[in-house]
Amino acid sequence: MPISHTTCKSYEEMSSDVMRTASITIPPITRGPGAFFASLDGWLFNNSEASSSHAIVLPDPSLNLSLPYPEDELTLIAGCANPQALVRRHFHLRDDLLSSPVTSLSGGERMLISILKGVLLAEKTGNLLVCSPFFWLDNYHRQAVRSLLHETGVRGTNTNVMTMLGEVGDADDHTILPPADPLEWTLSLARVSLTFAASRFPRETPEKSIVYSPSEDPFSLKSPTLFSGANGIGKTTLCKLLAGIIQPKGRKPEITVRGYTGNARLTMQDSVLQLFSASPQMHLRRVFAHDEKLRDEAREVYDELQEACAEFLTSHDPQQHVGDRTTPCTVLQAKVALTAERLVSKPPLLILDEPGWCLSRVAAQGFVSAVTRIAHNRRIAVAIISHERAWWRGLVGDELVFSASTSGPEVAITKGSLT
Amino acid sequence: MTSTGFLNYARIRPWWLRLFILLLFALPMFGIGGLPVQLRSDAVFQDLGVWVSYGVFVWLLVGLAVGAEKLLSWLCVGVIFGLTVAVSGVVLRHMKVWELIQHLADYVSKSSPTVSTVEAELVKRLIVIMIAVPYSLLVLESFPASDILRRAARPNGSKHAELWLAVAIFLRVFQHVFEVAGNLLLAWREENPRLLLPRHQRDWHGLGAGAGLLRWIKSSVWSWSVTLLEQALLFVPTAVRDWSRIGR
C-alpha cells in the first residue's frame, strides 16, 4: 500500500489534521492553562473508533512513550519478542539504550523508539499516523525511518506521514540565508567530561560517560555556530553544561565573547516545557514580574523578532503567518517569547536547540536569522543545534561536528565546513 | 565506575511482602511507634530530636537504595515543599489566623496548643515532609508499573485486569510526574540559576523585597502546580491507549 504524505505549514495546522485523521485532540499548551483545560475533554475522553484504530507517533516523543524503559515499550505494549535485534537491525543504536530510562535518552533516540513502537502497533491496528518524525533525526536515521515506513506500507499498513513544510525537502531548493554581521567567540572544552552514574534501583541501568575531546582548545568560532552530529552523541548535554544547568565532573567549559565570559542561555529541544504552561505573553509577564524595565525591553525585542519573522514569511511564502498578534499562541510565538527573554538577559552565548522543531522551513529560517541579527547587535553569540544543515547555509559562520570514538566515551569535536 | 544504591526493594517478592516492609518504615508517620505526634511544650527540642533521628533512619534506607545523589535531589524536593508549607504557616501566624484557630479550639478541647507550640509544630511539619517526600518517592519507584501491567496481561490475571490497569495508571502517573519534574527543574534552573530567587529582580528594594519574594514564591508555586498537573493529564490518554492494547 503506498504511503500517503501530508504537508503542514504550521504545528497548529498539523494538530487539526491529526484531529481530522485520527480523532485525537492535541491540547494547545502554548495557549495557557485556560485553553489547555478547556480542550481536555477531547484529549482525555476521546475513545472514538478512529483514535483506537490508529497507531500514532506525535511530534513530541514524550507524548508517545508511557513506560519508563524503552524495552518495556517495545515488549510489553508493542509485543516485540526481541527488541534488541529490532533496534540493532533498523537503527544501529547502542546496545544499552533499551535498558536506559527513557528520560536519559536524547530527543532523537526517543523519537526512534516512538517510531518503532508505532510501526509494531500498526501491525495490529492496520493504520499508522506519523507526525513530523524526521526533524530530530540525523541523516542516517532519517533514511532508516524512510525504509522502515516503506516496509510498513509494503506489508499493507495504511501509513500516513505528516511533515512540516520543508522537513523532507530537497536541499537544493532551500532559501540561502544572507550572512550575519561578524561576531567571534571562543569555546574552551578541554578536559570537560560528565558521568551519569549507574543505578541499581528500581532497575539496573548502566553508567554513561561523555568525555569531550576538542581538536583545538580554545576553538575560535564565528557566530552563529552550528553544532551537528549523530543522535545521542551528546550535543544537548554539552549545551546544558554550557548553560550551567548540569555540572561537569572536572573542569567547566568556558565561553568568551569580546572578553566577556559567563554561562550561556538555552532554549531547549522541548522548549514548550520552558513556558511553564503559560502563553507567550503570560510568560514574559511572569518572568519579568519583578523587573519592569527589562519587561519593556523584552516586549520590544519580542515585537521586533515577531515583525522580522512576519516580514520573512511574507516575502518567502505569503500563505504562512506568525499567528494572531493580539493573543499570541502559536509555537513560533512561544519560541519568540522564550528567545526575547534570553536576549535581554545579555548572556555571552544564546543556544537554540533544534530551533526549527514544529516550524516550517521558512518560518525556522526567518526566526533564526532574526534572532541572530538581534543577538549580534547586542554582542551575543549564537549556537544552533540542528540536523537540518542545509537550512542554515549562508547564515552559519562555523560548524562544530561531534563524532563518537570507536571505543570509549570520547566525543571528538572538530571544526567542519558547511560548504 | 560510579554506581548508586546497594538495596533494591523492587526485587522483594511477592509484592505484598515488599509493601509490608515499606509500610513498616512509615509507621511513625502514621502515629504508630511512639514518636511524639504532638510536641510537648516542656520538651520541644527533645521531641524534634526524635523526629530528626527517625528522619536520618529513613534517609539512610532511601539512600541505600537510590544512592546519595538521588537522595539529595529528593530531599531538595522535600525541603522546597516543606518550606512552602512552613512559610505559609508563618504567614498565617502573622495574620493571626493561628490565634483564631486556637480560640476556636479552646471551645473544643482544654488542651489546645499554645502559639509557641504552633511555631514548633511548623518546624516538625517541615521535618516530617522532608522525611515523607523521599520515602513516598521510594515507595512509588518500588512498584514499577510495567510489573503490574505484566500481571494484568497474564491469562490468569485477566479476572482483575481492569483493576491492575487502574493501579498501574495511578502509580505511573505519579512516577511520570516526578520524571517530568526532573526536566522542569532543569528548565527552571536555566530560567532562575539560583533556583529559589528569580533571575530578574531589579524592582526589589528595601522592605518591598520581602513582599516581592512572597509574590514570586506564590507565582512559582502556581506555575509548578499547573505545569505538573498539565503534564500528568497529558500522560493519561497515552497510557490508557497503550495499555489497553496489552495482551490483545
Can you offer a commentary on this structure?
The complex is a heterodimer of chains A (419) and B (248). Chain A is an alpha/beta fold and 419 residues long. Chain A contains 13 helices and 17 strands. Chain A has helices spanning 11-22, 33-38, 40-44, 49-52, 70-77, 83-91, 107-125, 139-154, 235-242, 280-287, 292-316, 331-344, 361-377, and strands at residues 4-8, 55-57, 127-131, 158-164, 184-188, 193-196, 198-199, 208-214, 219-222, 225-229, 254-257, 260-261, 265-267, 349-353, 381-385, 398-404, 410-416. In chain A, strands 6-8-17-16-10-15-14-13 form an eight-stranded mixed β-sheet, sandwiched between helices. In chain A, strand 16 and strand 17 form a beta hairpin. In chain A, helix 5 runs parallel beside helix 7 (107-125) and helix 7 (107-125) packs parallel to helix 8. Chain A is globular. The model of chain A has no long low-confidence stretch (mean pLDDT 91). Chain B has 248 residues and is an all-alpha fold. Chain B folds into two domains: 1-143, no CATH class; 144-248, no CATH class. In chain B, 72% of the residues lie in helices and 1% in strands. Chain B is globular and about 65 Å long. The mean pLDDT of chain B is 84. Chains A and B meet through helix 3, helix 5, strand 7 and helix 11 of A and strand 1, helix 6, helix 7 and helix 8 of B. Strand 7 (198-199) of chain A pairs parallel with strand 1 (3-4) of chain B, so a sheet runs across the interface.
